[in-house]
Specification:
By secondary structure, this protein is of the alpha+beta class. The chain has a 6-stranded antiparallel β-sheet. It has a 4-stranded antiparallel β-sheet with strand order 1-2-4-3. A hairpin with a 3-residue loop joins strand 5 and strand 6. The longest helix is centred in the last third of the chain and has 17 residues.
Length: 271
């Protein structure tokens, strides 16, 4: 077991793909991340010896060491009754793979209850590109390049004057209802594939496209974009000149989980 609250463990955790992305976000933009108590389960024995503790966590992901092939196509509802089965699947794909567990400061929501999934690509000093999906979707679609419902392009020199009043001026794309319906069907099929009940979740995904609400964009502007400009020199000093932040909303706020550099961003978008 590795835990972020242990300094020695934290250095080891930075050797993993997704875990380092989550730790990067906590370091550079702590006000954005809702993640707490980030912990890695390294083996089945580790899990069984600490089962009561691990089952107290709210969320999970899967991960492996940098330099190895990323573990793909393991999806679940995110609930703790899936943890052990997920770990078994991880080990079948990669003996060095791990289960990533964490808590969040807000009330956990179902994957279909979110207002939006949002990925913000940053080319420091040049521009910001936002890709987003709407109600009933989450960060999966945008972080993996599956689909986009809205896109925005903001030149760096416009960040200072950006506000909720002029935000829509930077929109470069909005999905048509025809294409939205296709993405809705694909979303429903995905949620069914991880064991969720379509009778419950389908009503959360509008049949016709509904633009992402203004209060969500206000959260993105206030809590990330304005802070981004202030952090420009700090980010550059650590080599973060090209990176992306990705995740979904919880309640009325953008609460991303991960921050990855250009090499990781390019790899993920190709999947």
């Amino acid at each position: 077991m590795l835990n972020m609250n242990n300094i020695d463990d934290k250095q080891k955790m930075m050797q993993y793909y997704r875990t380092s992305d989550m730790l990067n976000l906590l370091y550079f933009f702590p006000q954005l991340s809702s993640i707490r108590d980030l912990t890695l389960v390294e083996s089945e024995e580790d899990y069984l010896n600490n089962k009561e503790y691990f089952d107290s966590f709210a969320q999970n992901r899967v991960d492996t060491l940098k330099g190895r092939t990323s573990i793909l196509n393991i999806e679940n509802t995110g609930k703790n009754n899936d943890f052990y089965d997920t770990l078994i699947k991880v080990k079948e794909k990669d003996p060095l793979g791990v289960l990533v567990l964490f808590n969040i400061i807000n009330r956990p929501t179902e994957r279909y209850e979110r207002w939006a999934g949002i990925s913000v690509g940053v080319d420091l000093g040049k521009d910001v590109i936002i890709d987003a999906v709407s109600k009933g979707f989450d960060g999966r679609e945008v972080s993996k390049g599956i689909c986009t419902h809205e896109r925005y392009f903001i030149p760096w020199y416009d960040l200072r004057k950006l506000s909720i009043e002029n935000f829509k001026e930077y929109q470069t794309y909005q999905i048509s209802n025809e294409n939205y319906r296709v993405s809705r069907i694909e979303r429903i099929e995905f949620l069914k594939s991880i064991g969720l009940n379509p009778k419950v979740f389908s009503k959360y995904i509008p049949e016709e496209y509904q633009p992402i609400p203004e209060f969500i964009w206000l959260s993105v502007i206030r809590n990330f974009i304005k802070q981004l400009e202030k952090n420009e020199e700090f980010l550059a000093s650590y080599g973060f000149t090209n990176f992306a932040i990705s995740g979904h909303t919880e309640g009325n706020n953008f609460t991303p989980w991960q921050m990855f550099d250009k090499s990781r961003y390019t790899l993920i978008k190709k999947r």
